[in-house]
């Protein structure tokens, strides 16, 4: 009987957590956009080829939302900001933002970051 009671308590706890997670997803899911980052060329880059950085953003809500999009190189600091755009996307709308990074003089490994506010 004790095992049966523990199973019921655990199932109720799991159901309550699932309901909270689902409710928070429903409440917040409309505001969370889908983002894709593409780098061209996708592999090794030399200092003879410019790097094409593309960020695809999808407004997955039904409302129009204004986004602030920053593309950074090697960390989210003001001195690393490559591109900044303020865009408004209507519900379900998709937009691609592009930035071309000249690679002449660049050496080493770099991290590309897209920040969406």
Could you describe the 3D structure shown?
This protein has 117 residues and is of the alpha+beta class. Helix content is 24%, strand content 39%. The protein has 1 helix and 6 strands; from the N terminus they run αββββββ. The strands form 2 sheets. It has a 3-stranded antiparallel beta sheet, with no helix packed on it. It starts with a helix and ends with a strand. The N terminus is likely disordered.
Number of helices: 1
Shape: elongated
- Counting copies of identical and different chains, the oligomeric state is single chain
- Rg, please? 21 Å
Give the fraction of residues assigned to helices. 10-25%
Q: Strand order of the main beta sheet, please?
A: 1-2-5
Number of strands: 6
Distance N to C terminus: 52 Å
Parts with pLDDT < 50 across at least 5 consecutive residues: 1-28
- Name the structural class: alpha+beta
Mean pLDDT over the residues? 77
Main β-sheet: number of strands, strand sense, barrel status?
Answer: 3 strands, antiparallel
Order of helices and strands: HEEEEEE
β-sheet strand percentage: 35-45%
């Amino acid at each position: 009987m004790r095992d049966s009671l523990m199973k019921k308590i655990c199932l109720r706890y799991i159901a309550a957590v699932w309901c909270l997670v689902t409710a928070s997803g429903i409440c917040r899911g409309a505001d969370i956009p889908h983002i894709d980052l593409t780098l061209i060329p996708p592999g090794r880059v030399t200092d003879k080829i410019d790097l094409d950085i593309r960020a695809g953003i999808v407004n997955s809500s039904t409302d129009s939302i204004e986004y602030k999009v920053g593309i950074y190189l090697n960390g989210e600091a003001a001195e690393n900001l490559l591109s900044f755009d303020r865009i408004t996307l209507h519900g379900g709308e998709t937009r691609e933002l592009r930035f071309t990074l000249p690679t002449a003089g660049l050496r080493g490994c770099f991290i590309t970051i897209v920040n969406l506010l």
